[in-house]
Amino acid sequence: MIRAAALLLALIATPAGALSCRMMQPGDAYDHAAASASQYAVVAGVADFDAALLPHNRYADIANAPRSTPIPARVRGQALDTNGFLTPFDREVTLDVTCLGNWCGTLVPGAQLLLFLELRGDSYALTLGPCAEFAFPDPSPETLAHVAACFQAGVRCGKLR
Fold first, then answer.
1. CATH for the stretch 21-153
2. Quick check: keyword Signal in the entry (predicted)?
3. What is the 3 state secondary structure string of the chain?
4. Mean pLDDT, consecutive 10-residue segments, the chain of 161 residues?
5. Burial of 104 (0-12, 13-18, 19+ CB in 10 A)
């Protein structure tokens, strides 16, 4: 019995016990934002920031990193409006990078993204958790059209078919 418990503990501490994420799709993020009491801006564009500030680049022992690391960033692109991704967006935002154990959110500066930015007070924040819930790299034209169509129709988005 003790051997079985020791084996179980050893497995949990190894990659077999790694974080398991439910892969969110842009439609899921849209549905979350639409149902939230918070306001969101949905932006297709790029985020520029200092990648050295990301927790996995900053802390030798990531397990001791703070649960949340705010990182200043600038997001440039086109925000979603009733006609699609047509409203110019160029603002300072805060990347709210969160960690769970050894797993932290991440993002590549300058990459093309679909972002769901939460309005917090008078500025926007992008939550970057270990499971990448609100930032989607290289969104296809079909993905952008799907999210825009959901917004225009005022319906739940779900997965792109």
1. 2.40.50
2. yes
3. CHHHHHHHHHHHCCHHHCCCCCCCCHHHHHHHHHHCCCCEEEEEEEEECCHHHCHHHHCCCHHHCCCEEEEEEEEEEEEEECCEEEEEEEEEEEEEEEEECCEECCCCCCCCEEEEEEEECCEEEEEECCCCCCEEECCCHHHHHHHHHHHHHCCCCCCCC
4. 38 47 85 93 97 82 79 98 96 93 88 97 94 92 94 80 54
5. buried
